[in-house]
Amino acid sequence: MKKLLIISNMYPSSEHLSFGIFVKNQAEALRKSGVDVLVAANDNPATGKKNTIVKYGKWAMKTLSMAMRHRKSISITHAHYVFPSGVFSLLLKKLFKIPYIVTAHGGDIERMAKKSARIRSWTELILQESDHVIAVGPVLAEQIENDFHIPKEKISICSMGVNRQVFRPGDKAEARKALGLDQDAFTYLFVGNVIKQKGIEELLIAFEKVQAEADRKVKLVIIGSRRDTNFIESIQPFVDGDVQFVDPQPQPQLVKWFQASDVFVLPSHLEGFGLVALEAIASGTPVIASRVGGLVSLLGEGAGHLVEPNNAPGLAAEMMNALHTPREVYSNKQAMDAILYEHDEQEITKRVLSLYESAVKGGAAR
């Protein structure tokens, strides 16, 4: 294989550290394995019609320019998110006969494809014309097979993997000291975009209930981008001094927040995989999460604790359970270790490389 071109509508920058960080992590892992990787990505998370037109226009020009320049040496393209990233991979296949693999992350199937009949049509075409489809979780894979008529043998279930050199257990007291956190407070942590679909409102309501019933000091830390100002304003009645908001963190710093916390909580309404839950597990932090999407297969065998989505009382009850149960009892180390082995970044990289090789050979045979 000569060059790999990764195409993604999400990619981090120095201003937006967590925006599609999982795509960058995989790109770096592939480079470490010896692959010559090119990246054509949008690193601007700005929303609004005007911003979207401008940023996607710039991204399109960058992608097509890079593809034209390297078209003779690109062996395969890998689109992250079916639409819109997959449009470029499809175009390059039609123009230059470059095979492509597309990774569906969840939001592209659960939300984007449902926005309009036109986007759904594009999504189906991109999936059908691809040389292989990667779904980050089994529920998503089943949805792609059934809803978009993609043969089962053309779909691989493969998460983005977790870098266990970065996300690893550490001393809680030392981490709290480094972060300036109360050593005695039982600390719940959320990491992700602070938006309604992540279950933030239910989390805050559940935390209020925990505060009222707890027999010790409790704290909630919410780390993530707060770009949805209307939503942030709407949740202010549920926020008090024991709730701390933190801007997105670089991964070497983020792991300290995991290590410093007693429990990680991810009450999403939908989740293609739930990589951040895997990062928490790798850091030795117990997980409470919604029974949705990829979280069911990730945590359902005992690696975490599942609650029904959109259910603040149920979430509060499990948060109280975590508060009153010794950590060594609340955590199922055997199940957590099994999940970490299955989703280790190095193993995932080997699987992705194998898919590339098969797609390239298939393209050469046509």
Description:
With 366 residues, the chain is α/β, with parallel strands linked by helices. It has two domains: 3-161 and 344-365, Rossmann fold (3-Layer(aba) Sandwich); 172-342, Glycogen Phosphorylase B (Rossmann fold, 3-Layer(aba) Sandwich). Helix 3 crosses helix 5, helix 7 crosses helix 10 (251-260) and helix 8 crosses helix 13. Helix 3 (85-96) links the parallel strand 3 (74-80) and strand 4 (100-104). The chain contains 16 helices and twelve strands.
Which helices and strands occur, and which strands form pairs?
Blueprint: E1 3-8, H1 21-32, E2 36-41, H2 49-70, E3 74-80, H3 85-96, E4 100-104, H4 107-110, H5 117-129, E5 132-135, H6 138-148, E6 155-157, H7 172-179, E7 186-191, H8 200-213, E8 218-223, H9 229-234, E9 243-246, H10 251-260, E10 263-266, H11 275-282, E11 287-290, H12 293-299, E12 305-307, H13 312-324, H14 327-330, H15 333-342, H16 345-365
Parallel strand pairs: 1-2, 1-3, 3-4, 4-5, 5-6, 7-8, 7-10, 8-9, 10-11, 11-12
Helix pairs in contact: 3-5, 7-10, 8-13
In short:
The chain is of the alpha/beta class. Helix content is 48%, strand content 16%.
Query: What CATH architecture label of the largest domain applies?
Result: 3-Layer(aba) Sandwich
Mean pLDDT: 95
How is the largest sheet built, in terms of strand order?
2-1-3-4-5-6
The total strand number stands at: 12
- Tell me the distance between the termini: 17 Å
- Let me know the CATH homologous superfamily of the largest domain: Glycogen Phosphorylase B
Strand content: 15-25%
Q: How is the quaternary structure best described?
A: single chain
